[in-house]
Write the structure tokens for this entry.
Amino acid sequence: MHLPKLQNFRQIESIRQCPLCHYSQSNRLIDLEYALFDDSPIDSRMHLSACGHCGFVFYDTVSKEDDFRNFYSNHYFIHAYYSVSHDYQSDTECYSDIAQLLKNYGLSSTSRIVDVGCGKGQLIRSLKHYGFDNITGIELCQDYVKGLKAEGMEAYLGSALDMPIRKEEADLLIYKHIFEHFYDLHSAAKAAYEHIAPGGYLFVAVPDAAFYNSCKEYSSLHYLTIEHINHFDLHHIESLFGTYGLKLENSVTRMLDISEDYPVPIMSCLFSKPINPEAVELKPNFELAENMIHWLETSDSLSNKELENLQKSQREIFVWGLSYRTAMYLAMSPLKDCNIKAFIDIDPRKQEKTLLNKNVISPDILNSLNDDITIVIGVGPSSRAMMEQLRNQGFKGDIIRLL
Ligand SMILES: [Zn+2]
């Protein structure tokens, strides 16, 4: 890839305004594409862009806020079906660090803590274990809320923009791995500000884009997944909440590896809401944008020898495991031009879909495949187990596991 330096880019009119400063012109760094199910409400192309005014790195896209809402409500199939719900080692360590951090800042068993986008409640359960008793979760997914209530925990149906709690109720609001997904950052940040009590805190965890190039096995391209439409570094996340007078107290970035193969740099930030908050003016910073250009220039892309050979030979293959990272390979690597017979996935919701006009079938078919077939295992935390399963059942054909 040969990308010009940022100062040589011609700024163009963005389709999506900068979500941080609302400036309408941006530098388009690279066009990305993903293979999404044929009925996907969001567009399969994302344009990695750097705001011409503040330097924030985000996806410019024709998809609008409603399209993303539809996507997350009806088309976002992750995590629900792999293994039983259990905590990964790296998660457990991370929760213990969060508990310690909160104690250091004076939060206690009676502090009102709200986890926004709590999912299945792993963090809530863990913080309860560390003595934080007055804790509740807010979650979009009805099933998760039901599950938490059945466990005797406090949980409400709601979202970051529609919080079922009183203004200034929370001593601490937690947003773990959700700000990178928001189309409208300021509405979410403003709602957060309004629901924190004066003197209270905000804990935010997002991928740290400043570290997208710090893992030897992966190029920064691997971290540009479709759902992360905002790519924060410390400067820009501090700027977002600084607009509302929230003050950065603590931040740390560590590589978290839940799948034992794919470490993701996660930045955890604690902000305080002063009794008299003073808004801070947004300062431009293009360091991440400049770095991103350099990284993408030197990136070795998503290709590898095995995929190139498959493409050349046009052998018939099955692709097993349709994660969003597999979707990158299916659109941006030689896999897109391979002779794919069908897709395989254990999630029955995906089996109702088509992808690239091909069917998605149940893994039951794996019991009856001939050994002259090649199986490409998609990217995901279960991929090692999937490979073992194939070997255990005596499959002798070629297996390629994507990383
Ligand atoms: Zn901007």
In short: The chain is about 25% helix and 25% strand. Residues 18, 20-21, 23, 51, 53-54, 56 surround zinc ion (CB under 6 Å). Residues 89-104 form the longest helix (16 residues).
